[in-house]
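Hey, sorry to bother you again with one of my protein questions. I've been staring at a protein lately and its backbone has me curious. I owe you a coffee for this, so here goes:
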Amino acid sequence: MKAPRVTLDQWRTLQAVVDHGGFAQAAAALHRSQSSVSYTVARMQEQLGVPLLEIVGRRAVLTDAGAALLRRSRHLVQQAQQLEELARNMDQGWEAEVQLVVDAAYPTEHLSCALEAFIPQSKGCRVQLREEVLSGVEEQLHSGSADLAISSIGIAGYLPQQLGTLQFLAVAHPQHPLHQLRRTLSHQDLEGHLQVVIRDSGRRQPRDEGWLGAEQRWTVTSLSTAAKLVSRGLGFAWLPRHDIAAQLEQGTLAVLPLAQGSERAAPIYLYARKDRPLGPAARILADLIISHSQSD
């Protein structure tokens, strides 16, 4: 790959000529002589082989080619500035990336708000977000693949911050045979019907959660798939209230009238890796996750 013939400084000079309205004004803004600015732009045109500016009256005006190249150059200069800023931040201990692993049952709205608030404070730090189910979060934390982890299970050896409580509801389509019984249901009533369950994404010691007494079970990999299947009348499931609020309101799902267990509460925790201290970016993101977990 050939090295670029035009430098970032030359692109900055051209931008200054255009933004400040002329060579003299650009020279004042850049604290350089007017002849230096004029030479820089003339040299650019020679190197690129296309005219960038033309003199109209007493003003230097962009040619069509110059306007197109100038637009692209602004992105180039901005990216270079962001790269240099990231290098300075890293020199001060700022992370280039934070790895966040989240239980799929955690409310997306809370997570989105925290990430949105993190952007203006991130200083170029990227976030690698990964969704797991049950012990899959624990495995990522133990393996060192997570700086921060949000899990609905207690993980031994870590000091968690509780973010709140998730509510799981036993639901089925209103026309499901269980609803057609039109009475309070027992667990014995459930045993003869299809239950949709979510597969634990962990590989070492996958675990089962909740009631799994149905003789026939379908196992899926995501909560959204489970909700879609149950909404079409294909069985029943315990699903997070926040994920199925729309289906409950629309009437495609209804809570099963169980004598006990129709609603299950599960605490949700924030964990931090313990093999090394969190960097400043991860600490900011952790604080934002905690604060936004309290919002409705």
Remarks:
- The longest helix spans residues 64-91.
- The mean pLDDT is 87.
- The CA atoms of residues 171 and 255 lie 4 Å apart.
